[in-house]
């Protein structure tokens, strides 16, 4: 899939530091897992991203969008074609009571920016480790709040390589889902409509949620965050805990002993270890409670 002509096209648009060949993706994921990308690209402007995206389309190679790698599991065989890492697109700015955040900005940083400007509405996001692009992709949420509650609109790159603005309603935001993947959108920027609040109250809420996260989640190990969606009428973590699966290991992957909804990398786990353990958990919970656990984590790439 790799050839010098494609590499040269990218290098006409980006610098050598921004174009990496056969780069291990394990360096860019929270699980510390992932095979090589044929081309790993780090655009620094929307225009640069647009040009490189069109170059990839013209070359006929697959395109994958990667944020900060927090809620993704990349298989051991890596990813063919061009992988766009958007973490350098991270500007956050203020317009009245609106916060505009680029796709690579951390959701946590965006919530702190809102706090600094005495704006309320993003407190729920203070412990979610994903990027803005990933947060819109899955309508991220926690502690009773979600992106759909505060999003006004987004700027996206279409499959045709056009930059357009779409409203929140255009994205079909549901529980941990949107139509971003179906429409082949690349999120460039999000506009959050917030409200002026009291800084001490906003900070107190964020401190409370941060404490809850740090006390309940296994942050001492690499992980992809919450692995499973909440099944209707149940909590995934409790079903897994009641199935006596906490501490279960396959290879270097383990069901966390601290929070059963997490699978952690305790000993140089591979993606195969993770996937095998996910399937084992799903099978056991189905047998015990007749509940289908659907993955929240995005699993991409090729088998080794």
Order of helices and strands: HEEHEEEEEHEHEEEEEEHEHEEEHE
- Summing up helix and strand content along with how strands pair, one would put the structural category as alpha+beta
Which CATH architecture of the largest domain? 2-Layer Sandwich
Task: Report the biggest beta sheet as strand number plus sense, adding barrel if it closes.
Answer: 5 strands, antiparallel
Please report the number of helical segments.
7
Task: Quote the CATH topology of the largest domain.
Answer: Uridine Diphospho-n-acetylenolpyruvylglucosamine Reductase, domain 3
| Fraction in helix | 25-40%
Amino- and carboxy-terminal Cα gap? 16 Å
Q: Which strand-content bin applies to the residues? A: 25-35%
How many extended strands?
19
Low-confidence stretches: none
Write down the overall geometry. globular
Sheet with most strands: strand arrangement? 6-7-13-11-12
CATH top level assignment of the largest domain = Alpha Beta
């Amino acid at each position: 899939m790799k050839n010098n002509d494609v590499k040269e096209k990218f290098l006409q648009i980006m610098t050598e530091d921004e174009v990496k060949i056969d780069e291990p993706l394990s360096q860019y994921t929270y699980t510390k897992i992932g095979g090589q990308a044929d081309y790993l690209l780090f655009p620094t402007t929307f225009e640069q991203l647009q040009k490189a995206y069109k170059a990839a389309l013209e070359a006929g190679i697959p395109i994958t969008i990667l944020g900060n790698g927090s809620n993704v599991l990349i298989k051991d065989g890596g990813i063919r074609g061009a992988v766009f890492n958007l973490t350098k697109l991270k500007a956050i700015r203020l317009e009245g009571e609106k916060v505009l955040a680029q796709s690579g900005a951390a959701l946590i940083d965006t919530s702190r920016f809102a706090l600094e400007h005495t704006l309320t509405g993003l407190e729920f996001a203070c412990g979610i480790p994903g990027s803005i692009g990933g947060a819109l992709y899955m309508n991220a949420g926690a502690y009773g709040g979600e992106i759909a509650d505060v999003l006004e609109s987004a700027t996206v790159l279409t499959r045709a390589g056009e930059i357009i603005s779409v409203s929140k309603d255009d994205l079909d935001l549901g529980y941990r889902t949107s139509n971003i993947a179906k429409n082949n959108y690349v999120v460039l920027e999000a506009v959050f409509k917030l409200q002026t609040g009291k800084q001490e109250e906003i900070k107190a809420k964020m401190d409370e949620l941060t404490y809850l996260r740090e006390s309940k989640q296994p942050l001492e190990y690499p992980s992809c965050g919450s692995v499973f969606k909440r099944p209707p009428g149940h909590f995934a973590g409790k079903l897994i805990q009641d199935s006596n699966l906490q501490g279960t290991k396959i290879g270097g992957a383990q069901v966390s002993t601290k929070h059963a909804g997490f699978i952690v990398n305790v000993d140089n786990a591979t993606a195969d270890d993770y996937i095998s353990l996910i399937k084992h958990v799903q099978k056991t919970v189905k047998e015990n409670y007749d509940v289908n656990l659907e993955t929240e984590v995005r699993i991409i790439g090729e088998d080794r």
